[in-house]
Amino acid sequence: xxxxxxxxxxxxxxxxxxxxxxxxxxxxxxxxxxxxxxxxxxxxxxxxxxxxxxxxxxxxxxxxxxxxxxxxxxxxxxxxxxxxxxxxxxxxxxxxxxxxxxxxxxxxxxxxxxxxxxxxxxxxxxxxxxxxxxxxxxxxxxxxxxxxxxxxxxxxxxxxxxxxxxxxxxxxxxxxxxxxxxxxxxxxxxxxxxxxxxxxxxxxxxxxxxxxxxxxxxxxxxxxxxxxxxxxxxxxxxxxxxxxxxxxxxxxxxxxxxxxxxxxxxxxxxxxxxxxxxxxxxxxxxxxxxxxxxxxxxxxxxxxxxxxxxxxxxxxxxxxxxxxxxxxxxxxxxxxxxxxxxxxxxxxxxxxxxxxxxxxxxxxxxxxxxx
Length: 371
Prior knowledge:
alpha/beta, Rossmann fold, 2 domains, 4-stranded parallel sheet, 14 helices, 14% strand, disordered N terminus
């Protein structure tokens, strides 16, 4: 009562609060130390005929400690949540994921000694589930892919934990102006190439965080690069972008893990995207397999989606007589998909025939034209 009469102040500097602050400081130091230990990912050259005058690069995100592009996102999300006071010592962290983000977040949760629950579609590859469990996390599988967010919110409320919510916070958690984000890294690595400013950068949507970061960075640095987002079957981003409908939903899960979503996610910023290309799942898988055959780099289906869109753009540049460079992402390694995209039996069970797309890709690599 006396405190209220004096102005109603409250003091949070007691021992328990200070212990919580000390834990957060220690947690942030551990996450930042991980970033300091991790060297930047490689920018690989994909050989194309010299007479085309076009250079293709793959940013190999599979070399992160947790094996995918999502390692960057998970680090940013943890730092964002820690600095916002949302993550607390001993409280569980919950995430809705199709697998790779959950693998990376499980890694950081173990680093901080936190329980972690990954809410994922039951169709998530067995390899990803095993990786998540390797880091000591729990996998909570749901039959309906559209229910992962609602189920994550429920678990967080019941447990007193924090729902990380990558689909809302991905575009906010990353510093798009620089700070060694993926865009800054690409342009730094391109400085000594013959076409240092790419004509196009091609990425999948996923949470929307990567396209938001690159699109903002390009504008901030006043660069001429254009941004293309590729989208697989059953995903909502293409139609949502084309129809300017941020509430668009398909109500269906995607077979290309990591990028396809049944709704347009809050972190997707359509106004920084110059073009979108819708890619059949069979084309994505054919491209991923052909990459492994031609380069020895085995990648997941989302990389195949990137490549199909990239080859489409290169075909058009060739037809227009334009020389330059194009950059896309190798999102994760193919070892996570041995029982899906690289399994002929799985393809048959899904009714996927990659033969016509494989033929089209081989024709493209021979002629520079993708029909």
